Amino acid sequence: MNRLLSFGHGYSARALAGLLLPQGWHIVGTTRSADKAERIAATGVEPLVWPGDDIGPALRKATHLLISAAPGQDGDPVLARLRHDLAQVASGLAWVGYLSTTGVYGDHAGGWVDESASLTPATERGVARVKAEAAWRRLASDTGLPLHIFRLAGIYGPGRGPFAKVRDGTARRIVKPGQVFSRIHVDDIAQVLAASIARPDPGAIYNVCDDDPAPPQDVIAHAAHLLNLPLAPEIPFADAEMTPMARSFYAESKRVDNSRIKRDLGIHLIHPDYRSGLASLLEKEHR
């Protein structure tokens, strides 16, 4: 039996589980919260509160690992606690996936980047991800761990779209000239991970994004159009009141190339741009 151990079993991991469970996989998902453990169990995934519960048996039985947990002040939380244990089980694993971010590339002034681009992160979060990627690659080099790195663009999907803010009038169209972001629907993240599991290529790095990098104000405008609601006024970036976290996202502008997932994994995107993705979300709401 295929057994997936999912560290930090969150939004993207749940979407992957939705594809694997019907195929007979056994999935164990970790969380820090007992409340979240109950919600994980309701989806058919075996929950494990970790750190806390003994993770040893699940790790030794796993055939596949997915790491979604973000790095903290002490680096990658999985490596910080389990590096030795991972080294012990590395030879028995068929696939390991690490979910990173396109933030590792930093700012490219709206230019295109592929997986060979230099890593010059412009935020603390990006720096932490670069360090975490390097630490996982060192472990893979030392042990033969079958590591695959997935650099995810901005994630959206059910429960994570602009419609709620457009409806309640809190959506803002903040305009910074030349600013573009890449995005990815969670359904496409799931299909990329599943395709990689079916076609392992240890050492591979994949950008996971759609075909249409776009200014953020265009996404808000299209959501308003779909809802037939008034368009929020444009606000110049320099005048916008934003949290430091929100403002940091505007420190980077780039167009992320997704050719590799199509060429190497045979991916045909379910939602190749934000327009089809938003239309699908609204359709699901209506159903």
From TrEMBL:
InterPro entries in the record: Epimerase_deHydtase, NAD(P)-bd_dom_sf
What keyword terms does UniProt attach to this protein? NAD
A Pfam family the protein falls into: Epimerase
List, for all copies, the residue spans of the domain called NAD-dependent epimerase/dehydratase.
Answer: 96-209
**Which protein are we looking at?**
NAD-dependent epimerase/dehydratase domain-containing protein
